[in-house]
Structures are given as structure tokens and as C-alpha cells.
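stage 2 :: seqdesign
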């Protein structure tokens, strides 16, 4: 299993810390029960963190035309009409996926296109399940012009455990469904803001896989303009 580069330093440091802690435990606590229990807990904790930073290589096998895939592994926790007032400045469908600490936390681009807007906002660390987390928590907003002419927003949101959002996307970058746009450490959520005429392909509480699960299909911008 490949490990995401965001976790390399953390895993090395954690291994050293746990090894240093285990040495005096084995030297000074009565063997074998207490040292064995401490070492077992250390191994389980290390494997938990190791699992968190796993980074599977994925490619979307279907037709990319107009498709929106989930940016992350997790569960759909919100699907509603809202007003996106940071970049789109328009009504949109907000599709939110919550990641537990057990999920892969790499974030994929949901569409093919061009990154036009990136902004990071400091904020609180409320539970990512709460609706106000979208506007009050630490977050990064990425605006993308899709290849079919539509615009969408991806918002990385920190949760109660997450304390660092990493965003690789920069204005002018090419967005590809098969590539990472960022990483969020230890529990969080990602919101997608989609055009109102998008065909939604998932339901509430549905489990998604980042870079794999289709969540919506966008109509070409020319069809949207004609319909209006």
C-alpha cells in the first residue's frame, strides 16, 4: 500500500517516539504483561495512523464528458439547494461528503477542467457534520471551469479532529479527475457546489470512493444558456 507523502514525516516521527517510549517500559516495568500491553497499544495506534495516510492509485474508467466524481471517500451527508456566495455568487446544489478518520483522506479533482480560483480561510474546528461548518470552519475553496463550460466549486472543510488542510490546486492548473487537488488530515468534509440543472447520481447516506464514484452529470453550458 502506497503512503501519501503528507504522512511520511509524521509516520517516521511517530515511530521514533513510540520506540523511545517502549524502551523504558520494557526496562523498568515488571515483565511481561504490562510492557506487552503497552507495546500492543503502540502497534495498534501506529497502524491506525498508517492506515489514515494510505494513498491508493485510482483512475476513473468511465467517460469523463460532463461527469462529476466524488472528491473523497466517505458518506453523503448533505444534498440541498444553497446560495454559494464566495465565487459562483449563484444558487447551487451543495453535495457534501463526510470523511471519518478511517477513510482515505486524499482529495481528488471531481471534474476535468481549469482551476480559476483558490482561497484559504481560517476558522473554527466544529464537527464537520454541522451545516455551519461550511462557512465557519477552516476551509479552502477551489473554483473550477469545467471542460463543458460549466463552473463548480470544491470546498475542503476541516473537522473537529482535522487541524490542517493542504491544497495543491493553484489558479491556472489543469484539473483532472485522476489527480489529487489536496489532502485533509484527520477527519473532515468536502462540499461540491454544482449547477442547479446537474443530474445528481447519488443519495443521502450513500458511500462514495474518491476518484471513482460518479456523483453528478453536468449539462454543457450551451444547453443551460439555451434553456434559460
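stage 2 :: out
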Amino acid at each position: 500500500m502506497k503512503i501519501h507523502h503528507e504522512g511520511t514525516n509524521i509516520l517516521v516521527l511517530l515511530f521514533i517516539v513510540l520506540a523511545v517510549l517502549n524502551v523504558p517500559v520494557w526496562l523498568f516495568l515488571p515483565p511481561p504483561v504490562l510492557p506487552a500491553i503497552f507495546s500492543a497499544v503502540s502497534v495498534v495506534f501506529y497502524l491506525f495512523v498508517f492506515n489514515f495516510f494510505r494513498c491508493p492509485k485510482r483512475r476513473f474508467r468511465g467517460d469523463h464528458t460532463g461527469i462529476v466524481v466524488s472528491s473523497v471517500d466517505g458518506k453523503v451527508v448533505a444534498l440541498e439547494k444553497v446560495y454559494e456566495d464566495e465565487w459562483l455568487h449563484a444558487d447551487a446544489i451543495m453535495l457534501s461528503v463526510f470523511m471519518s478518520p478511517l477513510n482515505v483522506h486524499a482529495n481528488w479533482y471531481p471534474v476535468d477542467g481549469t482551476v480559476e480560483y483558490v482561497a484559504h480561510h481560517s476558522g473554527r474546528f466544529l464537527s464537520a457534520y454541522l451545516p455551519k461548518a461550511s462557512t465557519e470552519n477552516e476551509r479552502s475553496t477551489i473554483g473550477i471551469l469545467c471542460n463543458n463550460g460549466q463552473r463548480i466549486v470544491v470546498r475542503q472543510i476541516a473537522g473537529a479532529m482535522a487541524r490542517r488542510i493542504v491544497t495543491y490546486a493553484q489558479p491556472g492548473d489543469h484539473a483532472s479527475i485522476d489527480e489529487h487537488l489536496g489532502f485533509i488530515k484527520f477527519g473532515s468534509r468536502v462540499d461540491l457546489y454544482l449547477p442547479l440543472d446537474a443530474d445528481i447520481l447519488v443519495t443521502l447516506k450513500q458511500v462514495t470512493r474518491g476518484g471513482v464514484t460518479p456523483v453528478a452529470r453536468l449539462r454543457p453550458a450551451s444547453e443551460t444558456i439555451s434553456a434559460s
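stage 3 :: structure notes
- The chain has four helices and 14 strands.
- The longest strand covers residues 74-84.
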